[in-house]
Specification:
By secondary structure, the chain is α/β, with parallel strands linked by helices. 48% of the residues lie in helices and 15% in strands. It is globular and about 55 Å long. The relative contact order is 0.16.
Length: 246
Amino acid sequence: MATAIQWIRSLIFMIVIYTWMLILGIVFAPYALFTKRGALQACKTYARSTMWMASWMVGIRCEVRGTVPVEEVVIGAKHQSFLDIMMIFNAVPHGKFIMKKELLWTPIIGLYARRLGCIPVDRGKKGVAVAKMVKDVAKEFSEPGQLVIYPQGTRVAPGVQKPYKVGTAVLYEGLGFPCVPVATNAGVFWPRTGVMRKPGLAIVDFLDPIEPGVEKTAFLGRLEEVIETRSDALMREVGFDPDAVH
């Protein structure tokens, strides 16, 4: 009975937040079209309000740990769900995301992603995609910001193993910025698929930065080790055993 009630609450929550996205997107559109500040304000408002609604509608509380970067950095983040996107974006001053190019053609999301300076990537053309990504990022960083990239390239369910891709290492080397690893357990409560949202404490943890100058292969190995180790610890903290999935 309790599970059925939670599922209904989750369904109502999902309907509400996507309707709210549409409303905010339309209301802020004139402002966002003429200034990036408008797009940033709209997206920050959506992230904060959605996390607030998650707390009382489905019982998901959000907590950010570690030192949030405010300077120009590359953020290499564990990606488990839509929730960790909002938590990271809300925490940093001006987040820009590496994202699959199809999203740029999505109503509302596409408009605001472009205005924020998000970088599209064609995941079907790996070599070409990485080269173009580096070029686009260098161009976009004429304005300060925190560049968020997901080293595994997509959302990965809690406990599932997926390799880290070279794109993050290429950006780290090419830009010469520190890389801040970010761990999360958000997918335990807000999964990558389905309606059900489970109550609990979703955590995003900003870890110690990896300073510029580490060789690409060594960098990628270090990034994977610290993110996966800390993410596993955060999942165990809330009662989820990632080893049971491996």
